[in-house]
Amino acid sequence: MSEFWNRAFDLDGRCAVITGGAAGIGLACAGLLVERGARVVLLDRDPAVVEIAAGLGTAHIGLRVDLRQIDQITRTIDTVVDRFKCIDYLVNSAGVAVLDKALDVTENAWDTTLAINLKASFFVAQACARHMLAQGGGRIVNLASQAAVIGLDRHVAYCASKAAVVGMTKVLAMEWAPHINVNAISPTIVETALGKKAWAGDLGKRARLQIPAGRFAQPEEIAGLALYLLSDAASMITGENVVIDGGYSIQ
Ligand SMILES: NC(=O)c1ccc[n+]([C@@H]2O[C@H](COP(=O)([O-])OP(=O)(O)OC[C@H]3O[C@@H](n4cnc5c(N)ncnc54)[C@H](O)[C@@H]3O)[C@@H](O)[C@H]2O)c1
Question: Structurally, what CATH architecture does the domain formed by 3-245 represent?
Answer without folding.
Answer: 3-Layer(aba) Sandwich (3.40)
